[in-house]
Sequence to fold (456 residues):
Amino acid sequence: MTSKRKFNRRDFIQATSAATATGFFMGTSAVSRGQDSPNERPVFATIGLRNQGWTITSKSTKFADFAAFADLDETVLGENLAKLKERTGQTADGYADYRKVLDRDDIDAVMIAAPDHWHTKISVEAMLAGKDVYCEKPLTLTIDEGKLIEKVVKQTGRVFQVGTMQRTECDHRFLKAIALIRDGRIGEIRKVTCGINGATGSPVIPAIDVPKGLDWDTWLGPAPKVPYRALPEMREGYGGGVPLYTNCHYAWRNWYEYSGGQMNDWGAHHVDIATWALGADATGPNKVTPVSFSLPVDYKDGYPTVSDQYNSPTKFEIHANMPGDIPLVITSEGDNGILFEGTKGRFFVNRGKLTGKPVEDLETNPLPEGAVEAVYGGPVSENHTANWIAAMNSREQPISDVWSHNRMLETCHLANIAIRLGRELKWDPTKREIIGDDQANAFLSRESRKGFEISM
Fold:
């Protein structure tokens, strides 16, 4: 299945020119070995192994062979190489530098589970190196990063799956929810509410010595250079053995420098399903309003005034005005999941349940045959990786493509910008820019730290 050709900067520019001149682009490899022999197992590598990195790897060993792992923490790298050996009997190579993975011609595709602030750089460089990509959600740290990824997917022809696995897994209840809406079971949608949980702030977290085996400077990568911070209390679960309060490990999700808090974490799941159900995954809102919110530290001009505490929102209620003037409410209150309300009824869905009268009515009035498959666009894959590999074989984009993901994630990014600035934002979904607010538009991109720019 290996596509050996790599895209360097000259190839990229030539392809861009050709695409502009002809109006389309044919990928770097129109036919791969996987298309010649659908039963051949692809060769994968995983970049970023802690927690979700191992989760997506372990789910994928049924369908693919893993030739390499990359992680900046030598302990995590060693532990996961051992787990792979125990699980599959395979021995993979381990690297601290992910670029050594991208240099290998025997690797068809990469699975990326590094922290969010690394997603765009690794993803773009992987595609330019001729690899298909699976990247964990949320895909980007900024809206402009999403535009860049879309551009490179189009220009390289790589197949790119985003890890919004609710589109495929969770007993397909989210697909059934959308099928209910499409079959008119709640009439016209009047309101959608996404409950995505609140968060907590942190105590003051002191700067301490970097743990042995962790390359902290490279972990920071494109983000600003800051000290490593942690308190002694340890976190249960999530791989264990990591500080509860830190600016690294699991807790990086609570810092805007590396992620987008709950808005981009759970929001990337539930806002995705809500946007899909609304038929708005090729557009987005025209206005985002921060009705209420709480930040754990003081802010000035959209930036935290201290650097030793978590800085993403702890509570919030955001209203996004979707096409048809349908309100999409994103809230930290209530049950985690999605409430759909229409002119004929309402129902609630999350990873554990699908409830409401329209759901109860299915006992006597089931959905038409093939309704769920119609939402999915064909036979439903057994898991997210299987869908990605099928797309790799067909050279078509998978169920969680970058375009629909980025459109959904723009709502989450805009919500965070609105919270940081404390005001409503008007959004042009065609130009993909904030209307009449230069300060807010400055948050659509970020400057990478010198030495960690994207290699084009």
Summary: Residues 9-167+384-401 form a domain with the Rossmann fold fold (CATH 3.40.50.720). The longest strand covers residues 287-294. DSSP finds 16 helices and 17 strands in the chain. Residues 159 and 397 are 6 Å apart (CA to CA).
